[in-house]
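Chain A, query sequence.
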Amino acid sequence: MPVTHGVAGSSPVRTARKIEVSSKKVRLFLCFPVMYYVYIIYSTSHDVYYKGSSEDPLRRLEEHNSDKSRYTSGKGPWELVYTEQLPTKRDALIREKQMKKWNRETIERAILKSKS
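Chain A, predicted structure.
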């Protein structure tokens, strides 16, 4: 089971869903926070890690396992071993760039720390 941790805070908001009320089109604005994640997946068949970012790491995992990602294609099955929640897309991209510099020891230490 993936572990999620990170910083909560203000985040971008998605809006605008049209609905019909009394035969008139009314705009209803739904507001809910959009969180961003960095994640690490592990290939059990090739013994490699992949780091990425997404709004939906579980959907992204499905894409990796369906060979919809060029780098991870043909290297599955993949399992989600680490997630970290961040408040903005910018923060997630910065963190992903940092994580891509990690060596295997640092990756595995982060995974172990997130499970405790």
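Strands lie at 4-6, 13-14, 17-21, 24-28, 32-33, 36-43, 48-54, 78-86. The first helix runs from residue 57 to 65.
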